[in-house]
C-alpha cells in the first residue's frame, strides 16, 4: 500500500482536501476482513461507499487503516483516515446547527449496516496517518474453555474451546515472547517487508466472566501474528507443550507445524495509540522507514 | 400452566422420575420467546427436543421455566426444571467416567444451536420448582443513547436509542415505583391472575461502556411489565415527562397511552434466586397461593 497523502494534498483534481480521522468498531463475523477485495463484503468497501453516499461524492474515497484485520476478526477501537474534498466536508451539516463531524457521524449511522459503527469523525491533526503514525496496536483474544463460561450473547467475539486451559502456564509462555524480535516464526512472510516487531505486552488472565483472555500489544503486527501467538499458547494451555516452547519456536525463526493459527472469532482490535499531535509526522516517517527498509 | 409435578411423580407411565434443574442462557434475537408455540422457533421447543435427542426419549419432556421471556428477550441466568425417567438420566454418561449432569451438559452443547447454552444440569433438591420456588427475578435493560457507545459486538443485547437520555432523572423515576403495588398499569392483564407484585430494586446508571442500564428485581413480573416500566422511564429520560410521572401512572391503575413498551432487544433476564433447600417447598406453596388467589 502506498503511503497516504498528506492533508495538504488535493485528491480531487485540484480542490482543497481535508484529512479526516475516523474512530470505528465492527463485528467482523460477516466480513471478509478489512481490506477491499473485488466481489467480497469487506469493512473498507462498506465504509468507503457509505462515505460517498453521505457526502454525495462522485467516487468512493480511499480509507487508510491502522489495523488491516483478517476475515472474521473484530475491532472495537479501529482508526482510519480519509482525504476528502473540503467543500463536501464543510457542507455535511446542511441546515443543521452541528459540526461537520457530528453530521457525518449521524448520517453514517443511518446508512451503514449494524455490524459497523463509526463512533467519531473529525479533522485529523497535521501529520496524522492512521497507519504510520500509530505507536502501538492492542488486541484481545477471548476464549471460553468451559461450557459454563459460554455466553450466547457474546458469542460473536469469543472462541468456544472444547478443552479446559491452564491459564497461568499460557501467561508464562506469553511473557517469554516480550521484547523486540524477528517474529518470522509467527508471521506469514511478505516480500520486502520486515518481520521484526516489538511485543510491548502479552499476557493471559481469567476475566470476571470465566473467560481466558489474552492482551497483546505491539508497535505493529505482521499478518496472522496475533493468532499464531495465541495458537502457540493454546498448545501450552492444553498441556501439549511446555511454557518455554513458544519462545523456542520464536528463536528457531521458522514457521513451526505445531503452531496452529487460532480462529479469528476470538480476536478483537481493542485500541490504537498515537503520539501527541507534535509527534505525529515524525512517528509516521520513522514507521515508514522501519517497515520498508529493515526487511 | 399447571404446577409442575414433584420429584416423586412418575411422568413415564410408572417409571421412577428424577427432577433436573437446568441453568441456561440464550440470545433471544432469533427466537419467538421462551414458550412453545406451534410452528415457531422457541427456546422451550429447541431445548425439549434436544433433551429428547441426547437422552433418547420416545417423547420430548416438558420444561418449566422461571421467566417466560417474550420474543426477542434474552436470558443469561435462566433456570428451568424437567422431570425425566431416572433410568435415562443415569444412563447418560454411557461408558464415560463423568456424572450424568456433566454428560448431559456436554451432549446438549453438541446438539443445541449456538444461541442457546445449557450451563449446568443436575438433580434438583426436594421441593424445587423452577417457577414457583423462585424468590425473585433480576433483569437488566441496556441502552446506547449515543453513537459513541454503540458496540457492534454487543448489539444483540443493547437497544440503540436515537436521543440522549437523562439517566439521573430516569433513576429518580424508577425509585418512585419500588415496593408492593398493583402493577395493573404496567401489565397486560390475564384472566384470574393478580397484578400485585413487589418491586425489590429498580434503578438506572451509566455503566463503564457509556450505556444507560436499568437493573430491575421483583418477586415476579407480569407480562411485558419490565419493558413497560422501562418505556415509562424513557419518557422521563427524554424530558417528555417529569420523574414523578411513572409513579402517577402506577397509582392510576390503568394502562396509559403515554407508556410505550420498550423494544425487547435491550432486555436480559440476568438472575433467578431461590431460597435454601429447606425453604423450597414452602416458597413454592406460598407463590402458588399468591399468584392464583390474590388475583
Helix percentage of chain A: 10-25%
CATH architecture of the largest domain in chain A: 2-Layer Sandwich
Low-confidence stretches of chain A: 1-8
Q: What general outline of chain A do the C-alpha atoms trace?
A: globular
Task: List the domain count of chain A as a whole number.
Answer: 2
The third-level CATH topology of the largest domain in chain A is Alpha-Beta Plaits
Oligomer designation? homodimer
Largest sheet of chain A: 10 strands, mixed
Number of strands of chain A: 10
Proportion of residues in β-strands of chain A: 15-25%
Please report the distance between the alpha carbons of the first and last residues of chain A. 15 Å
Largest interface: A-B, 27 and 27 residues
Number of helices of chain A: 7
CATH superfamily of the largest domain in chain A: Pseudouridine synthase I, catalytic domain, C-terminal subdomain
Radius of gyration of chain A, in angstroms, nearest whole number: 20 Å
CATH class of the largest domain in chain A: Alpha Beta
Structural class of chain A: alpha+beta
- Following the backbone from N to C, one meets helices and strands of chain A in this order, namely EHEEHHEEEHEEEHHEH
Amino acid at each position: 500500500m502506498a503511503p497516504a497523502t498528506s492533508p495538504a494534498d488535493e485528491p480531487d483534481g485540484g480542490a482543497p482536501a481535508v484529512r479526516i480521522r475516523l474512530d470505528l468498531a465492527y463485528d467482523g463475523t460477516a466480513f471478509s476482513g478489512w481490506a477491499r477485495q473485488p466481489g467480497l463484503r469487506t469493512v473498507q468497501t462498506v465504509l468507503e461507499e457509505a462515505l460517498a453516499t453521505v457526502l454525495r461524492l462522485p467516487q468512493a474515497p480511499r480509507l487508510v487503516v491502522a489495523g488491516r484485520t483478517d476475515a472474521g476478526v473484530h475491532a472495537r477501537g479501529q482508526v482510519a483516515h480519509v482525504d476528502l474534498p473540503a467543500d463536501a466536508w464543510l457542507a455535511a451539516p446542511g441546515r443543521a446547527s452541528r459540526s461537520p463531524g457530528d453530521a457525518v457521524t449521524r448520517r453514517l449511522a443511518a446508512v451503514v449496516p449494524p455490524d459497523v459503527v463509526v463512533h467519531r469523525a473529525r479533522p485529523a491533526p497535521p501529520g496524522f496517518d492512521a497507519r504510520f503514525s500509530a505507536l502501538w496496536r492492542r488486541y484481545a483474544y477471548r476464549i471460553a474453555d468451559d461450557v459454563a463460561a459460554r455466553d450466547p450473547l457474546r458469542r460473536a467475539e469469543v472462541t468456544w474451546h472444547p478443552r479446559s486451559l491452564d491459564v497461568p502456564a499460557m501467561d508464562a509462555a506469553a511473557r517469554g515472547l516480550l521484547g523486540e524480535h524477528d517474529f518470522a516464526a509467527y508471521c506469514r512472510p511478505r516480500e520486502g517487508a520486515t518481520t521484526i516487531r516489538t511485543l510491548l505486552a502479552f499476557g493471559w488472565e481469567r476475566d470476571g466472566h470465566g473467560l481466558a483472555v489474552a492482551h497483546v500489544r505491539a508497535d505493529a503486527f505482521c499478518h496472522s501474528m496475533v493468532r499464531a501467538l495465541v495458537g502457540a499458547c493454546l498448545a501450552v494451555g492444553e498441556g501439549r507443550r511446555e511454557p518455554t516452547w513458544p519462545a523456542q519456536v520464536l528463536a528457531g525463526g521458522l514457521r513451526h507445524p505445531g503452531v496452529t493459527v487460532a480462529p479469528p472469532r476470538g480476536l478483537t482490535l481493542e485500541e490504537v495509540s498515537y503520539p501527541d499531535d507534535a509527534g505525529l509526522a515524525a512517528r509516521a516517517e520513522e514507521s515508514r522507514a522501519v517497515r520498508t527498509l529493515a526487511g
